[in-house]
Write a structure and sequence with these properties.
Layout (H helix, E strand, L loop, with lengths): L1 H14 L9 H8 L8 H4 L6 E6 L11 H9 L3 E6 L14 H13 L7 E5 L7 H8 L2 E3 L1 E6 L2 E6 L6 H5 L1 H17 L5 H9 L1 H20 L4 E4 L6 E5 L2 E5 L8 E6 L4 E6 L6
Parallel strand pairs: 1-2, 2-3, 3-4, 6-7, 7-9
Antiparallel strand pairs: 1-10, 5-6, 8-9, 10-11
Helix pairs in contact: 1-6, 4-5
Length: about 280
């Protein structure tokens, strides 16, 4: 299975299919235009041209609500030394659900790992990811259950966070139904997301799950003697300071805004990326 998928990916990648649009007149016109690129100044107090590390999660390639166009614009217009994808690159193990824009994201990730780019790409397994060995073969990305790095004299721990989610494992059918309804609400209103936001605000189970993942992540960080812990999984971006621990959740790239955690040499911030930011 893995060898077959690897062959298909290599054939698609080498054929030029992933960059076909870049040869079109439309691409040339768009390239000549001065492209709008966020400076992230409102988050860091000054324009940021380069990040030490960025953390994203929950891309869910293969789903109909993933923001692949926004993510591709983001990756093409941001400078960084290290990219950590904190789980759920894929939505399922069915690669037939990947459309053209999804393949482009995989092509971009593969390009980032080329030696001349001097970029480190780390992938942390999520509960939707069934491709750890395959993704390593396809893209040359290192795969971990959790990953730790040093930043500004602090120990930063990253893990997807599904290990802290007892509800999903105990009630898989209810979780699947709730997940379907939530995704449907995003599909109905993909930009303003009023219905999905209302569901999140009024779902006790959802709010409880956010709290459980957060609390257990902070306790685990203490045990690991980490100063910062970053999770994904809940699709709820947040920053919480507690007991000397900074907890970040990197949100999701199925939402508007999408979110990343950006590390400069001095600061780490939760940053929102909106549809239209690169238009």
């Amino acid at each position: 299975m893995f060898e077959g998928n690897l062959k298909v990916f290599n054939n698609v990648y080498e054929s030029g299919y992933l960059v076909q649009e870049e040869k079109s007149d439309k691409f040339i016109e768009d390239f000549i235009k001065e492209k709008k690129v966020p400076t992230w100044e409102k988050y860091f107090g000054e324009p940021v041209k380069h990040f030490n590390t960025i953390v994203i999660s929950d891309i869910h390639l293969g789903s109909n609500v993933t923001r692949t166009d926004l993510l591709l614009d983001f990756l093409n217009n941001i400078s960084f030394d290290r990219l950590i994808i904190n789980g759920d690159v894929f939505d399922s193990i069915n690669m037939q659900r990947l459309n053209r824009s999804h393949w482009k994201i995989l092509g971009k990730l593969r390009k980032l790992t080329d030696r001349e780019n001097h970029t480190e790409v780390i992938w942390i397994r999520g509960n939707h990811d069934g491709f750890s060995d395959l993704l390593t073969q396809l893209l040359g990305i290192k795969v971990f259950n959790e990953y730790t790095f040093e930043w500004n004299g602090k120990k930063v721990l990253t893990l997807h966070g599904d290990v802290f989610d007892v509800f999903t494992s105990k009630h898989p059918i209810i979780s699947d139904v709730a997940d379907y309804l939530y995704r449907l609400s995003i599909h109905v209103d993909p930009v303003r997301m009023r219905l999905s936001s209302w569901l999140k605000r009024n779902s006790k189970a959802f709010l409880r799950n956010i709290e459980v993942v957060r609390n257990r992540a902070i306790l685990y960080a203490k045990k690991q003697k980490a100063d910062v812990v970053i999770c994904g999984h809940t699709h709820h971006a947040e920053t919480v300071e507690r007991d000397g621990i900074t907890y970040f959740n990197s949100g999701s790239w199925t939402l508007n805004p999408a979110t990343f955690i950006g590390f400069t040499d001095k600061m780490a911030k939760e940053v929102s990326v909106h549809i239209g930011d690169f238009k």
